[in-house]
Design goal:
Helix content: under 10%
Structural class: mainly beta
CATH superfamily: Lipopolysaccharide (LPS) transport protein A like domain
Number of helices: 0
Strand content: over 45%
Radius of gyration: 18 Å
Order of helices and strands: EEEEEEEEEEEEEE
Length: 170
């Protein structure tokens, strides 16, 4: 059974920092497939979601349980300071791990990390990559095949074919 309609969740006074489930705040349209054991919902048009201190925006989203597949102009914000942009995203809500794909940019202050695939653990605030990324910091850049970035401690670790260009990275 399918249901189709417009969707906008009512504004409610609630502490969003303690939400352990994925909540869809707004979407222009929603389609729900009730024939599955766990209903599948497809949202489109200016989709806005949140979970804990995470805010996610995209063009289209598919939600099954606490898992999210997002496409188109994906913006992923944590604690107002960590911003990530990508073409698509898979977010496993129970483990709070995000897999960001294609044209990924993670911004934290003046640091920017560019990759085509970034795995980001929202609980530990550690981003990792296994197939090349570039870290840009002011007038310097560093490229490596593998590495991870501890956002909370502002520490990056680079492995395999590391190249530095510009002034020394701090």
């Amino acid at each position: 059974m399918l249901s189709v309609g417009t969707y906008a969740q009512q504004e409610e006074a609630q502490d969003m920092s303690k939400t352990d489930r994925l909540i869809v705040k707004f979407a222009e349209t929603r389609i729900t497939d009730l024939s599955r054991e766990e209903p599948e919902q497809i949202f489109s048009g200016d989709v806005k979601l949140y979970k804990d201190s995470l805010f996610m925006f995209c063009d289209t989203a598919r939600v099954i349980g606490n898992n999210l597949w997002a496409k188109g102009n994906v913006i992923f914000i944590q604690n107002d300071t960590i911003r990530t942009f990508a073409d698509s995203l898979y977010f496993h809500g129970d483990s709070s791990i995000a897999y960001l794909y294609n044209d990924v940019v993670l911004e934290n202050g003046s640091n920017k990390l560019y990759s085509d695939l970034l795995i980001y653990d929202t609980r530990t605030k550690v981003a990792s990559y296994k197939d090349t990324a570039i870290m840009v910091q002011e007038k310097s850049s560093l490229q490596s095949v593998r590495g991870y970035y501890d956002v909370d401690n502002d520490q990056a670790f680079f492995y395999d074919e590391v190249y530095i260009e510009g002034e020394d990275m701090k």
